[in-house]
Write a structure and sequence with these properties.
The complex is a heterodimer of chains A (393) and B (290). With 393 residues, chain A is of the alpha/beta class. Chain A is built from 14 helices and 13 strands. Chain A is elongated, with a radius of gyration of 24 Å. Chain B is built from eleven helices and two strands. In chain B, helix 9 packs across helix 10 (236-257). The chains are: A alpha/beta (393), B mainly alpha (290).
Chain lengths: 393, 290
């Protein structure tokens, strides 16, 4: 009797264990795979998070319409962090413990990714970082973290190289204005590299505190230094104010700008100063044929609000989820985080249809899509024309 | 010399916006004894309202100011009635905390309505540079300086010659005595909020026109705070002058001493002045008999 009871209990136990074992991988069921997305959906930088969400949504819709990943549909779980690192940590904790996600695509800003890193590492969470291509994210390398994008250093170097070779008068004086933080340091590295490699005249380097609104004194300093080429490391409204002040002083400048200035709201602010400024970006501009084709193809998947939210961050996050999908697909039915990470590491020359240069993660830093196109604004319609193809710098 | 003049002119221009914001702080403090930490957000909200008015009605700068001022005053009155009046008699600390909460609410609501994107503020003014001697100005910058001068003059006349202004000074000097003299203190508080909102609207319109309208514009409130401390928290005219002084110091420090000193220089001067005159340059000295 005792033996029969023991056998019965073992059988029931085994029966209960079976489905649990089958669903042992978090975020994966027979019918779906849950992918997380922590982003900036509120606050002044919410245009980034909204664009990111559209990118993930479109990629998931496209993948699901084509039958999903080996029969499993992708379900996106999005959390807002308001661009606050401590909230990013809480958001990912919730995604892991409540929503039970399998992987992460789209990851807010640099400080936010770093705040989430302990959770990502502990869970060996396959993560594609699409909006924070900062060295702090990929150096040191975390095994499950893969980053798409070039550095600000490369972006500014690429633009200054182009200006030096094609636009600036011989012996032109160069100047830099940059934010007083890590982002600004990266911008200055690109400037420094260009100054050294091409033997340029370094007229002045200015730093400003984040949040500064008035740049009149800085413009006066640049004028006094005789600056003819400006590496404008200010962003959005501040970048526009810098140019407005240099214009007021009658300065004739060639301008290199941050890639955020390729987005329509930014371009609208900067254009009135009348400088045909450059941008170095690793993502296709809205007027780029690749982006135009993408918009035509996916308009039916998007609402009016989605279409209005589309910008460069949409394209890169779309590409990120497509790469993640390829890695998951290669695992077959037995989808695990370890297998996905292993396959992400094998990604080579993934074709993003021109939204970025082909992406490869089979390198020491697990970093891809770093090639940059240099664009120039057309002041008449505020569109951007590519001056170069994607190139590594 | 040209370098110096450029720095002085740009310092005065930005100082004019500090001065206007500072005057808003001082008006409320003078009448109610409260530091309104939502002054920057009041500026933000009214600037966004003005932006919508300018975009939809195609108003140029001066008509836009004229239309926005009464709207701002109504907002000031509503905020005072809803958030501040119920707190009358409560500890000062609690009232100040309410203004901090109000600031967060106004900021959130504004971004919710107008979104996070920055905008070029449509003023209808020419963007051609106007030269005064060798010094270039945008038209809107000259309007900024003229507005500060006009508001300062109006404030001086208001507090010196009008019954309402004198009543406000009486409330500021001794609320209890003013009440005994038949002054309706709660009405004075309400008017102070209305006036502060009107000045905030002017500051917001000018600031957004000179620089950009964006969701961080509220920060101008905090940035202008040193101006009002310098001038004296209870001195409306002192705040205007304090704004100009802080703007000048910031720009001259940036231009002559070096980078990173823009923010520090203003505060260094404030610390020095407050050590010499604890109530600010023009603040009233409180004398307690013991």
């Amino acid at each position: 009797m005792k033996k029969t009871l023991r056998m019965t209990l073992l059988a029931v136990g085994a029966a209960l264990m079976l489905p649990a074992m089958a669903a042992a991988e978090p975020g994966v069921s027979d019918t779906e795979i849950r992918i997380g997305d922590v982003n900036i959906l509120t606050g002044p930088a919410s245009f980034i998070g909204q664009a990111v969400s559209v990118g993930s949504k479109v990629a998931a819709a496209e993948i699901n319409a084509a039958g999903g990943i080996n029969g499993r549909k992708i379900v996106m779980k999005t959390e807002d962090d308001g661009y606050v690192p401590s909230r990013s940590f809480q958001a990912l904790k919730k995604l892991l413990e409540v929503d039970d996600i399998f992987a992460l695509n789209g990851t807010s800003g640099t400080a936010n990714v770093l705040a989430m890193m302990p959770l990502i590492t502990k869970a060996n969470l396959p993560t594609v970082v699409t909006t924070a291509p900062n060295e702090l994210v990929y150096n040191p390398v975390r095994p499950s973290v893969f980053t798409i994008g070039a550095s600000y250093e490369a972006s500014f170097y690429a633009q200054l190289k182009y200006i030096h070779e094609k636009l600036a008068p011989k012996g032109a004086v160069y100047g830099l204005i940059r934010q007083d933080d890590d982002f600004g340091v990266a911008v200055e590295k690109g400037y420094e590299r260009a100054i050294k490699e091409f033997g340029l005249k370094d007229g002045i380097r200015l730093r400003y505190k984040k949040g500064q609104a008035d740049f009149a004194a800085e413009a006066v300093q640049m004028k006094a230094a005789g600056v003819q080429v400006l590496a404008n490391g200010a962003i959005i409204a501040q970048a526009a104010t810098v140019l407005k002040e240099t214009r007021k002083l009658g300065m004739d400048l060639q301008v290199a700008d941050v890639w955020s200035e390729i987005m329509p709201p930014s371009a609208k602010l900067l254009a009135p100063a009348g400088y045909s400024y450059l941008i170095g970006d690793y993502i296709a501009a809205m007027a780029d044929p690749a982006a135009v084709k993408w918009m035509e193809k996916f308009k039916p998947y998007m609402t009016e609000a989605d279409i209005a939210a589309v910008n460069r961050y949409t394209f890169i996050t779309y590409a990120g989820l497509k790469i993640m999908a390829k890695a998951m697909e290669a695992c077959g039915k037995d989808l695990t985080r370890a297998c996905t990470v292993e396959n992400l590491r094998k990604i080579k020359n993934f074709d993003t249809q021109g939204l970025t240069a082909p992406v490869s993660f089979d390198n020491e830093r697990q970093l891809g899509g770093t090639a940059i196109k240099v664009y120039q604004i057309n002041l008449a319609d505020q569109s951007f024309k590519a001056l170069t193809d994607y190139q590594e710098y | 010399m040209e370098y110096f003049l450029f720095l002085v002119s740009s310092g005065l221009v930005v100082g004019a916006t500090y001065g206007l914001v500072g005057m808003g702080f001082a008006i409320i403090y003078k009448a109610t004894g409260i530091v309104n930490f939502a002054q920057g957000e009041l500026l933000m909200l009214t600037a966004y309202i003005a932006f919508s008015l300018a975009s939809s009605l195609s108003l140029s700068l001066v008509p836009l100011m004229i239309v926005t001022i009464p709207i701002a005053m109504v907002i000031g009155i509503v905020l005072e009635r809803v958030f501040i009046r119920p707190m009358l008699g409560e500890p000062l600390f609690s009232i100040v905390m309410v203004t901090i909460g109000l600031a967060v609410i106004l900021r959130g609501v504004t971004i919710m309505i107008w979104g996070p994107d920055p905008h070029e503020f449509p003023t209808g003014l020419s963007t051609q540079v106007v030269l005064i001697g060798p010094v270039p100005f945008y038209q809107v910058q000259l309007y900024g300086l003229a507005t500060l001068a006009a508001v300062t003059l109006a404030a001086w006349a208001f507090f010196r010659f009008t019954r309402l202004g004198i009543a406000m000074r009486a409330v500021a000097a001794n609320e209890g005595a003013a009440m005994l003299m038949g002054i309706e203190v709660s009405r004075i508080h309400m008017i102070a909020w209305a006036l502060a909102a009107a000045v905030a609207a002017l500051a917001g319109i000018l600031f957004a026109s000179m620089f950009k309208l964006g969701p961080t514009i509220w920060f101008e409130g905090l940035r202008s705070f040193p101006a009002v401390i310098l001038g004296g928290l209870d001195s409306v005219l002192g705040a205007a002058l304090g704004g100009l002084v802080v703007g000048l110091i910031e720009n001259l420090a940036q231009g002559y001493i070096g980078q990173g000193l823009r923010e520090i220089a203003g505060f260094v001067v404030i610390v020095v002045i407050l050590m010499l005159r604890p109530y600010g340059l023009f603040g009233a000295r409180e004398i307690e008999r013991v």
